[in-house]
Design a protein that fits this description.
about 350 residues; alpha/beta; Rossmann fold; Dehydroquinate synthase-like, alpha domain; 2 domains; six-stranded parallel β-sheet; two-stranded antiparallel ribbon; 8 strands; globular; binds nicotinamide-adenine-dinucleotide; NAD; iron
């Protein structure tokens, strides 16, 4: 069974100029403009504010990673005090997360202008953190109504962040291919995303101003995000969720380190998916192919370098195997502990 998403998506260069028109299409009169206050996005945010003009009723520029509920609750007061009728968010997955957290509590329409490759803007999934514990929920009210992808907004994303965010997208596509919910539509989107990321990541690494490569990567992120929203994810996402939520490791970097190892763990139980991924990557073996791609573009390869301590590895393995969830290969605490040790040391998967 495949259920198509009901998001409206604009994709191109210069599309951010159409945000006002799109907000009006959603019936907006009193917009709350959301961002994370990053200096790198200040100019784009200012231009967007000017374009929105008198539609802007309020602004909040403090979106934070892993969507802390205390931030959401503070912004909810602003939403109520200012009679906000539409949310417009510009930024990466963290800013999108805040918009979704507000939407699920208010049912306000959302218009997202993504500036990374996280893909959250096309999923009905929200991860939130309370007291250092990250929980995830899914609901139709969480899925943004409109997404405006503008490749020009991604040109300033630094190479390292582009690499890790691109691998975050790759992880959605990889796990979609061995998901028990996979169908021919998600398979086609996921394989196209894998092939496009394998082409575009080295090109963006070599020339971050290459608009065509940036567009290919952004489009792949869109496809991969749709896969993430359509089918359940497995071991890789669960592990990254634990490492980010409980151990405070950075989201996209953690995905980048863990992906080849989670793939190597699952490979014996998902040979067909791995073969298709390898073909899309243009390599013989999918897990080492992904590791080599990350190495080629200078991405992080070890959890130790991300600040994880060796002493936390066993606890992480325990947490990640505490509750059963669908995954091609049976999850054992010893197996996951070995996987994490390899990822911590930065070994190339065998
Ligand atoms: P992010 O939004 O935290 O952004 C990372 C950094 O990059 C920030 O400092 C930001 O200001 C900066 N940045 C963003 N775009 C930029 C640009 N174009 N130029 C320069 N700097 C820029 O990181 P992310 O990886 O996009 O998102 C991570 C968050 O998204 C996590 O909380 C994760 O759980 C969530 N996420 C959710 C889903 C979902 O479906 N629910 C999917 C993917 C990620």
């Amino acid at each position: 069974m495949h259920t198509a998403s009901r998001s409206r998506v604009l994709f191109g260069a210069g599309t951010v100029r159409r945000v006002r028109e799109e907000a009006e299409r959603l019936g907006a009169f009193r917009v709350l403009l959301l961002s994370d206050g990053s200096p790198a996005l200040r100019k784009d945010t200012e231009r967007l504010r000017e374009d929105l003009g008198d539609l802007v009723a309020a602004e909040f520029d403090g979106a934070a990673m892993h969507t802390p509920v205390e931030v959401t609750e503070r912004v909810l007061e602003l939403v109520r005090d200012q009679g906000v009728d539409c949310l417009v968010a510009i930024g990466g997955g963290s800013t999108t997360g805040l918009s979704k957290a507000l939407a699920v509590r208010t049912d306000l329409p959302q218009l997202i202008v993504p500036t990374t490759y996280a893909g959250s803007e096309v999923t009905p999934v929200l991860g939130e953190t309370v007291d250092g514990r990250k929980t995830t929920r899914s609901s139709p009210a969480i899925l943004p109504e409109t997404v405006v992808y503008d490749v020009e907004l991604t040109l300033g994303l630094p190479v390292t962040a582009s690499v890790t965010s691109g691998v975050n997208a790759l992880a959605h596509a990889v796990e979609a291919l061995y998901s028990p919910d996979a169908d021919p539509v998600t398979d086609a989107m996921a394989l196209e995303a894998v092939a496009a990321i394998a082409r575009a990541l080295p090109a963006v690494h070599d020339d971050p101003s290459d608009v065509e490569a940036r567009a290919e990567l952004l489009q792949a992120a869109w496809l991969a995000g749709v896969c993430l929203g359509a089918v359940g994810m497995g071991l890789h996402h669960k592990l990254c969720h634990t490492l980010g939520g409980t151990f405070g490791l950075p989201h996209a970097e953690t995905h980048t380190v863990v992906l080849p190892h989670a793939m190597a763990y699952n490979a014996p139980a998902a040979p067909e998916a791995m073969e298709r991924i390898a073909r899309a990557l243009g390599v013989d073996d999918a897990p080492t192919g992904v590791f080599d791609l990350i190495h080629r573009v200078g991405g992080p390869t070890s959890l130790r370098d991300l600040g994880m301590t060796e002493a936390d590895l066993d606890h992480a393995a325990e947490l990640a195997t505490a509750q059963p969830y669908p995954n091609p290969r049976e999850l054992t605490r010893a197996g996951i502990a070995d996987l994490l040790r390899d990822a911590w040391q930065g070994n190339r998967p065998a």
